[in-house]
Amino acid sequence: MTLSVVILAAGLGKRMHSKLPKVLHPLAHRPLIHYVLETALSLHPRQIYLVYGHQGEQLQDALQQFPVHWIHQPQQLGTGHAVAQALPVIPNEDQVLILYGDVPLIRTDTLQKLLLKADSQYLTLLTVHLSQPTGYGRIVRNSQGQVTRIVEEQEADTHLKQIQEVNTGILVVSAHQLRQYLGQLSNHNAQGEYYLTDIVGLAVQSQYPVHTVTLTDPYEALGVNDRAQLAQLERHWQRQQTQQLMQAGVTLRDPDRLDIRGTVHIAHDVELDIDIILEGQVTLEEGVKIGPYTRIKNAHISKNAEILSHCVIEGAIIGEGARIGPFARIRPDTVLAEHVHIGNFVEIKKSTVAQHSKINHLSYIGDTEIGQRVNIGAGTITCNYDGVNKYKTLIGDDAFIGSDTQLIAPVTVGAGATIGAGTTLTLSAPPQELTLSRAEQITVKGWRRPVKK
Ligand code: UD1
Ligand code: CA
Question: Is this prediction's pTM over 0.85?
């Protein structure tokens, strides 16, 4: 049988109190619904149907890269009604897997297990045992242990509320059977909604058996209804990532104080101190050490490089054995070669720095190419912008730039040149020579400070 996946995402998400559609709220920097769509795609279905209600344009914009068939549910009359909106376009011979847009951590292997068990001859439900089942539909079984129906929280009496086996909402049923049961749903219940879960009772009544697969990790079934649950899932997701890292030989000073918001490749013997955020595509090679309070986004940090505390690094490649920080900002399109040293309060943008060069204090380097073994003194500024255009600065190998130098780009400093401290360099400096611009120093004899009248 071919597979159709229906993802329900039309609910208002009232408890989020947000203008952003609930399923677009981020978990580890990606919309909740991305997780569900990716898991659905990994099952190679014939088609994914996404049932949406409000803010369709915003959703479609955010999900452009996913091949989904959009199904509009103009009014949210219940989960049964939501599935019914997709049914007319689903072929009768398909098997239908129902997923929820706000249940992001459900895993591919769990769904594969469910699909393996599923068959056109019966309905297969994914259930889970929860010590606090409040809010969920309860799985009611007869004395032989067979499922007879699902009772929603609002319909359950105190006796049924004791049941700890609950409905995850995820189920597999043939389109053919689904068609039959959805047609029989009514909304005569506490919420005045067409409950999808009522198809279970209907199936049992018509001798169509119901099977179950039980989840072991309850987090897979947890939905996001409010911001507290979102934060809870975020922590859980982060813990899964940090567990994997530690198992792979990464030292984390405190696994609860590392946040991964993207795809990371971290080699063994990397050490991460506390309060570090890794975002986008980040690679940390063997032996890298990252100090506390640092954010690294879309960057490649090579072997044994050391990032000291309070750095912000984005869109950069850092060479082997380099040392950055504390308090450094490395901006996009920066390439630092092996053993480069960047010190405190240094900002580097769109620049390359060759091996063993040092920029240790209070500098701005933008649109610059720096050779090997260059020393840039404290407070050196590349004046790369005239308010309209940007210009380049070139600094040759072994140059020495004195402190408090302004390099007015475009400008070139030759190899081995020395620039005297306090220079405003407007013309290129020849190689090997000392170049400086400095107003003559004078002393005004007998001058007195003014006194207050
Ligand atoms: C539902 C189940 C409950 C299960 C729980 C698991 C029903 C009646 N109940 O309850 O048995 O334990 O999920 O989380 O199915 N939606 C629509 N259109 C609608 C209504 C809902 O698309 O008209 C979507 C929502 O966006 C959401 C999902 O369906 O993604 C579930 O709806 P929700 O109202 O959250 O159902 P629960 O009360 O949580
Ligand atoms: Ca829910």
Answer: yes
Q: What is the biggest distance separating any 2 CA atoms in the chain, rounded to whole angstroms?
A: 112
Residues within 5 Å of ion ligand 2, judged at the Cβ atom:
223
Distance, in Å, from the CA atom of 304 to the CA atom of 311, rounded to the nearest integer, reads 17
Please report the atom of ligand 1 found closest to the CA of residue 136.
12
Distance 254 CA to ligand 2 centre (A): 32
Which ligand minimizes its atom distance to the CA of 152?
A: 1
C-alpha span between 348 and 152 (Å, rounded): 59
Q: Which domains does the chain have, with CATH numbers?
A: 3-221 (3.90.550.10), 250-435 (2.160.10.10)
Q: 30 φ, ψ to 5°?
A: -125, 145
**Tens of pLDDT along the chain (453 residues)?**
899 999 999 988 899 999 999 999 999 999 999 999 999 999 999 999 999 998 899 999 999 999 999 999 999 999 999 999 999 999 999 999 999 999 999 999 999 999 999 988 899 999 999 999 999 999 999 999 999 999 999 999 999 999 999 999 999 999 999 999 999 999 999 999 999 999 999 999 999 999 999 999 999 999 999 999 999 999 999 999 999 999 999 999 999 999 999 999 999 999 999 999 999 999 999 999 999 999 999 999 999 999 999 999 999 999 999 999 999 999 999 999 999 999 999 999 999 999 999 999 999 999 999 999 999 999 999 999 999 999 999 999 999 999 999 999 999 999 999 999 999 999 999 999 999 999 999 999 999 999 999
Say how many Å lie between the CA of residue 101 and the centre of ligand 2: 9
Q: 93 CA to middle of ligand 1, Å?
A: 25
- Specify the residue with its C-alpha closest to ligand 1, atom 34: 11
SS3 40: helix
